[in-house]
């Protein structure tokens, strides 16, 4: 069983189901709305723990208790939340997610307590980071905290996986220099490398750019097509499973969390772990919402 640390956001998602996205200046009725647990970090942590990883989550929630229902889910799933702390000043992060009738989404984020994660919080989790096999982080928490965590990981031979979402154009060199694997989607990849991801040749070219930045392994996810991988020894494409999407929210998070639970540290089972992660996200997109849609290992293996 892999020991996985996820450093990342906890959000309350307000999901607005619409027929189509409104035009600027347009007022439109929505089909339905719902509130559910979300946040890229929390979603990835749930995907990892439900796939059997011994998972520790580092995050921050608001003092108003809006995240309590999520903390209960984390505990029920057996996640270690000793390093999910409470902000004295900010409320729990929020996401407003429009989902259209094709299952595509558009998301607005209020960072809230997620933005209060400090390097002191990371230092407090140092023992857990040192004891892990790998750490995974995204960009919904302050970048200095990700750098601090990845530096501790690198000093202790703990593998680091960066999901650069939401994308930023210039990722600091001192973060890239301590990143083992990067997992962007096609849009994030283009923002970071400047190369438009269309076919496998453009994915190869993008991977080369990431290698130049100092990263050792790359996975570029391309939605319902699947995902491309490249290391110094191997590269290839793993097809997605064809399903009808009801809501693609957290599809990428499910992929990364499931992958982090299965991937060997030497990448020797990369294709197998990606196939497993693709299965997990193909199950997630068939159900509306983020955390409620994330499957357990038994469902993924039975599918
Ligand atoms: O990746 C999906 C997640 O992005 C949502 O759950 C939302 O909270 C935002 O963080």
UniProtKB/TrEMBL annotation:
GO terms for molecular function: ATP binding; metal ion binding; ribokinase activity. Belongs to the carbohydrate kinase pfkB family. GO terms for cellular component: cytosol. It catalyses: D-ribose + ATP = D-ribose 5-phosphate + ADP + H(+). Residues 1-295 form the Carbohydrate kinase PfkB domain. Substrate binds at residues 11-13, 39-43, 140, 253. Pathway: Carbohydrate metabolism; D-ribose degradation; D-ribose 5-phosphate from beta-D-ribopyranose: step 2/2. Activated by a monovalent cation that binds near, but not in, the active site. The most likely occupant of the site in vivo is potassium. Ion binding induces a conformational change that may alter substrate affinity. Its cofactor is Mg(2+). Catalyzes the phosphorylation of ribose at O-5 in a reaction requiring ATP and magnesium. The resulting D-ribose-5-phosphate can then be used either for sythesis of nucleotides, histidine, and tryptophan, or as a component of the pentose phosphate pathway. It is an enzyme of class 2 (transferase). The keyword Acyltransferase does not apply. K(+) binds at residues 247, 249, 284, 287, 289, 293. GO terms for biological process: D-ribose catabolic process. Homodimer. It is found in: Cytoplasm. Keywords: ATP-binding, Carbohydrate metabolism, Cytoplasm, Kinase, Magnesium, Metal-binding, Nucleotide-binding, Potassium, Transferase. ATP binds at residues 185, 221-226, 252-253, 278. NCBIfam families: D_ribokin_bact. This is Ribokinase.
